[in-house]
Specification:
The structure is a single chain. Helix 1 crosses helix 2, helix 1 packs parallel to helix 12 and helix 3 packs across helix 5. The relative contact order is 0.15. 43% of the residues lie in helices and 15% in strands. With 340 residues, the chain is α/β, with parallel strands linked by helices. Strands 1-2-3-4-5-6-7-9 form an 8-stranded parallel beta barrel, surrounded by 8 helices.
């Protein structure tokens, strides 16, 4: 494992297609296109959507459709899933969907896979039906998906058309140590959801690196950390903007979800002591501040983790402020590349 620095770090975006208070999913999708186009100009490598269901603030339930929409509106940035919750789907159908995307947008599509339902248990039952325990088949289903996307499947009785021979790059996503073992055994890149489940992050990436077995897709371990970031022209302004994210996380903790709320001057009176502690724990791997603060925090994070890529998600209420945050982050990375 070599030394990592900001100059060699790949940086990308995770878009949860967040619906903000007073707006609609249609507004969200327009903002996603605008951000993706800017991100392409600013040097971001990928633009991924996450699959979630039955959440009023998240509009990325039809993940593959949004991937196609963004890919059509951009020219070179990689677009993909962070991730597709494979137990919610037939591997064949996902091979067909992503094979179609890869045929339309060659060498630009990524397929990140997770095993969680991306929703509550009742909704998971509605999605999976008799396949409710399909998560147990996740390793087998990943292998099936790889086969459907391979040219070797051309003589099989069941084929993914289009899809066969596209070999769409597959990633394993995780928020616990279970996925680390799987990604290592299959020799696939590993993306960890440290933006909401940071507790096992360091343990999981060590397991992945220690147990990694090279594959046709990947010769060396490759770790992506998904992180929260809110960057502004000052630490004070970034802290103010981050109150929207904190309010969103209160909804996750309490189960009382709401659309993304406007930032507030103070969180006093909005959260109780227990909620504050829980939210701060979820924010362990987050970068909030002005450029210099975030630059220093990112350097420290890299020294500790040696990740190959960061995927940044930013729950910021105002679209202009969100664009500004991603632009400032790109400036941090590009400055280091120019200095190296």
């Amino acid at each position: 494992m070599g030394t990592r620095n900001l100059a060699s770090l790949t940086y990308s975006i995770l878009d949860l297609a967040t619906v903000i208070q007073g707006k609609t999913p249609a507004d969200t999708f327009k903002r996603s296109v605008d951000l993706a186009r800017h991100a392409e100009d600013w040097g971001y490598e990928r633009y991924w959507f996450a699959e979630h269901h039955n959440m009023i603030s998240v509009a990325s339930s039809a993940t593959s459709l949004l991937i196609g929409h963004i890919a059509e509106k951009t020219t070179k940035i990689r677009v993909g899933s962070g991730g597709i919750m494979l137990p919610n789907h037939s591997p064949l159908v996902i091979a067909e969907q992503f094979g179609t995307l890869a045929t339309l947008y060659p060498d630009r599509i990524d397929l990140g896979l997770g095993r969680a339902p991306g929703t509550d248990q009742l909704t998971a039952m509605a999605i999976r039906g008799e396949r409710f325990n399909a998560a147990n088949d996740f390793p087998t289903d990943v292998r099936k998906l790889q086969m459907y996307l391979s040219v070797e499947n051309r003589h099989a009785k069941v084929r993914a058309i289009p899809g066969e021979g596209t070999d769409v790059p597959i990633w394993i996503l995780g928020s616990s140590t279970d996925s680390a073992y799987l990604a290592a055994a299959f020799g696939l890149p590993y993306a960890f959801a440290s933006h909401f489940a940071p507790q096992q992050f360091l343990t999981a990436i060590k397991i992945y690196r220690d147990n990694f077995k090279p594959s046709a897709q990947l010769q060396q371990p490759y770790v992506m950390a998904c992180v929260n970031a809110v960057v502004a022209d000052s630490d004070t302004e970034a802290e103010r903007l981050s109150t929207s994210l904190k309010q969103l996380f209160i909804g996750v903790i309490s189960g009382k979800r709401q659309l993304l709320q406007e930032p507030v001057a103070t969180m006093e009176g909005i959260w109780n002591e227990m909620e504050e502690e829980a939210v701060n724990q979820m924010l362990t791997v987050s970068f909030i501040g002005g450029k210099e603060t975030v630059k220093a925090d990112l350097e420290s994070f890299l020294q500790q983790t040696h990740v190959d890529e960061v995927m940044i998600t930013s729950h910021i209420y105002d679209h202009a402020a969100r664009l500004r945050s991603y632009k400032l982050l790109a400036e941090i990375f590009s400055t280091f590349k120019n200095e190296s």
